[in-house]
Structures are given as C-alpha cells and as structure tokens.
C-alpha cells in the first residue's frame, strides 16, 4: 500500500486552486429543486424561486434529451451569470463520467460560473476512483478559472457497485458534500423488478399469520420499504465521513401523501433533505426536513432538565440521559440552522414555551 500524508489531503490538487475545506458547512438543503436549463419556460421561473427553496439545481443529465445537452449547459451558464442567488445554493448535475458530454460540462461550468456553483452532483458513481477523477479536474479548472473557494462534490448512489463502495466514496475527497439515493437507476442496475422512480411497491410486503389456520382469511398486509437498506447504509457512510445524506427523486408528483411518507422515513433515519421534481414537492420537503414544533419543545425541555448534560432524569415517566440528550441536541442544532435562513420557522420555534 502506498501512503499519503494526512496533511496532503488538505493540499490543493492543482497549483493555484483554492485549499480544500476541512469541514463541510451545515447549509440547509431540505429540497434540491431540479430544473432543466434547456427548457426556456422552466429557466424563466428560476430567478423568482430564489429564496423559496434551499437549493436550485440545473440538471444536465437524465431527463435532458441528447439533442439538448449543449443548450442545457449554455442555459445554465446564462441563468447563473444573470441571477443573484442570495441565500439559495446553486448546484448542477453533470452528465455521467462515461458520457461524451461531461468533460465539456465541467470545463464550461467551472471556468465560466465556478464562483456561483456550490456543488457538482456526479451521477452513477461506482467507486472512489470516480470521485478522484472529478476532484483533480475541478482543481485544475478552479485554478484556470480563478475560482476562489472549492466547489464541492455530491455523489448519486445508483449502481450496485456504488452501494458496495459507499463508504469509500464518502471518504474519497475533502470535497465530498453528500450522497443522494438514486432509486430509478439503482433499481435498473440491480435488476429489481419495479418500474417506478422512488417510493414503495404494493407487492413488497409481509402478511399477518393466518388466524385459525385459514390462509385465505382476512389477513392484514404490511407494505415494506424497498429503500430502507440502502438509505440506512448511505446514512452510516455519510455520518462516518462527516457529510450529508439525502433521499432522491419521488416520481409520482400527484401522490403528495406517499412522497411525504418516504421523505419522513428518510428524515427519521438521518437524511437532511431530498430532491424536488415539482414545486409541490418543495413545500413537502421544507416541512418534513424541519424539526416539528413538538419535537423542539420536547428537545428543549430535555436540554433544560439535563443541566450539565450528565446523569439521568425522569420526564413524564421516561428516562432521559446523556444519550437521549445528544439526540435532542441534533434536533435543536438543526432547528437553529434552519431558523437562521427561514424567518417563518424562526417565529414558530421562538414562540415555543417550555414546561418543567
Ligand atoms: C436518479 O437519478 C435516479 O436514477 O433515481
Ligand atoms: Mg439516475
């Protein structure tokens, strides 16, 4: 095995590129709203969405027709140059590394709008070698374009090999910002027998035992979550690396109820956000990925009751200790980060009164 000094992980990969970050800032990213920059109608709506969503993402990959790849890239350069994004982050999803478009995507975007671009989402990541490739290219292009701060990398988990390598992917570079589940490509790559973009499937279930041996009798069925294993694995890999996990696309735009369920499962398991494919999904994501008033009320009550944070107390018949306090602090810290950019949430959280 060849060794690399720990110090060298934080040296730029090209002369003149900005130094890598030592920590990924916790910037709210509850909804990553996808738009197609080659679609003039969609592109025209982007400036008005600034401030209404945490992340706007110009998509160049799947869902953009091959004939429109150049128009999408150029459209994104135009939108980014003409728009002041204020508190909203600007991300892009580049074409996959085995496509003929990705090199021009990176060269054009980094040299022309590199200072506006926060994160580059890389699809179909297979292993750490894919991250290393983009890492070095970004450094070279940042140096060429005079970009002042490092552009971060977000990987989509959408190949079987990528899932097998998720820990190495998460740890592949100080640029790694986070990972999203890509349920549509992942299902195809694994040869799952579904035909949907995210969400559950009525055939994936367990059934209550027969009553009195009557196997054809009335037996409750419980639908299971197809994505539980992958999301849990992704959350652990991200937590280990100090980066952020996300749900991905939920394709049934009309089923806002099931979308909310999937997003909430992901939130409870540790994800910080999800993709939005339609403005309807932004509202759901903003609500689901913000701690509820009830949770913050309880969390603050535990923080107060636990004093210096050690020992145990009883609240409403339940034991609270150092570890339950730490869980509460996750929610309290998240609420503070979100309140800093979301005045409506701030008002809600500020109005909470704690009982003893
Ligand atoms: C997203 O890109 C997916 O394939 O689900
Ligand atoms: Mg995909």
TrEMBL record:
Q: What is the lineage of its organism?
A: Bacteria, Bacillati, Actinomycetota, Actinomycetes, Propionibacteriales
Annotated transmembrane regions = none
Work out whether the entry's keyword set contains Metal-binding: yes
Cofactor needs = Mg(2+)
Name of the protein in its database record: CoA ester lyase
Can you give the residue ranges of the HpcH/HpaI aldolase/citrate lyase domain?
Answer: 31-196
Keyword list, A-Z: Lyase, Magnesium, Metal-binding
- This protein's source sits in the domain of life called Bacteria
Pfam families, A to Z? HpcH_HpaI (PF03328)
Please list the GO biological process terms of this entry. Answer: oxaloacetate metabolic process
**What molecular functions are annotated in GO for this chain?**
lyase activity; magnesium ion binding
Organism annotation: Nocardioides luteus
State the InterPro entries in the record. Aldolase/citrate-lyase_domain, Citrate_lyase_beta/mcl1/mcl2, Pyrv/PenolPyrv_kinase-like_dom, Pyrv_kinase-like_dom_sf
Q: Does the keyword Transmembrane apply?
A: no
Which sites bind substrate?
93, 158
Give the residues the record marks as binding Mg(2+).
158, 185
